[in-house]
Amino acid sequence: MGRVFVGVTLVLSVAGAGEESIRPGLGAMPTDLGPTYQEIDGVTYGAKPDQRGPIGGGEGYYEIITAGDYEVSDLDALVGALEQAEAGEVIFVEAGAVIDVSTRVYVDNLVLEIPEGVTLAGNRGEEGAPGALIFSDAFETQPLFEAMGKDVRVTGLRIRGPDPKRRLYHHRRSRADDYNYYAFPVSQGIQSSHSGLQVDNCEMAGWSHAAIALRGGTDHKIHHNYIHHNQREGLGYGVSHREARSLIEYNLFDANRHSIAASGRPGEAYEARHNVELYVARSFPFDMHGGRDRGDGTDIAGDWVKIHNNQFRATDQLAIGIRGVPQQPSTVTNNWFYHEQPGPEVIRPWPCDEDTNITFEDNVFGSESPALHRDE
């Protein structure tokens, strides 16, 4: 089934909170992750950065945009540029800009609509720059950004939502009496029902429903982002899928309820590779719902999942929950789990056999490097 690491736990060095954090109290992106992968007998286990830059993006990212066809620094200019921009053009939000959309969302239900083929960019990572900050404090921000066609790109920005909390009181109350928990307003950061959305080199936090909500389409690419504190109990997703397909890679996740979630409807699928899940997980980080969750009388858990070369550090939660049977063969391989051994504390269903349509093999376990022996 895999190999076992035994020994010490890595210590994570975290930069202090301040003006460059996405919200006071949440903290800045960790600056020293320590080992995220191991090479064993020529095979890579865990999350290995690629030539495009560090996991989570930021300083060292290869394709930082520093100018555009439109250059904006306030909300009116941003709205105007979004109304005029055409496919192939770039709207650049100037370094140091802080754009508060709260009032317009609250009063006008404003949604910032990004036209087909347009890139919205900031300079996150340029000489250590945090990137422009665009945020809403209105609880019912649904969503802040909407992709209005295919091939929209959002890059190099901090996109902060109104609610980084778990809201456990409201969730418990909904179970105790006749209280509609889902009437409590929710928020999404970026939403798309069109194919080819790319979100890269961004920091996203504080979205009670989902930082990135994929509501259809294929070929979505979510990579080199720091996605954290999207953790409303019962919701709280980093990237959510509904009848969508995506590639999710080289992201740094922390303090989400599910970092990746999917409704499990036919047609849904995702590949997750070279992501690092840090120490705080509110539920299992990688999720695929089954038919019982939807109440549709099936046991379908999407078309397929491919989960490989990720690192999972939180050991108080299982890492992967696939709550039904994928329609096509699915694989969980070459991951590095800090859990001490394979079993139901790592993945469900367990065991992964022919009935589950999931292959779980050649992963490594434990927090020390290098691996000392193979778990047979």
Give start-end ranges of low-pLDDT stretches: 4-20, 370-376
Strand order of the largest sheet: 6-9-12-15-18-21-24-27-30-33-1-34
| Largest sheet: number of strands, sense, barrel closure | 12 strands, mixed
Distance, first to last CA: 6 Å
Strand content: 25-35%
CATH topology: Pectate Lyase C-like
CATH architecture term: 3 Solenoid
What would the principal axes of the Cα set say about the shape? globular
Rg over CA atoms, rounded to whole Å, is 20 Å
Overall average residue pLDDT? 88
Query: Which structural class should the secondary elements be placed in?
Result: mainly beta
What is the number of helices?
Answer: 4
- Give the strand tally: 34
Which class in CATH terms?
A: Mainly Beta
Helix content: under 10%
Number of structural units classed as domains: 1
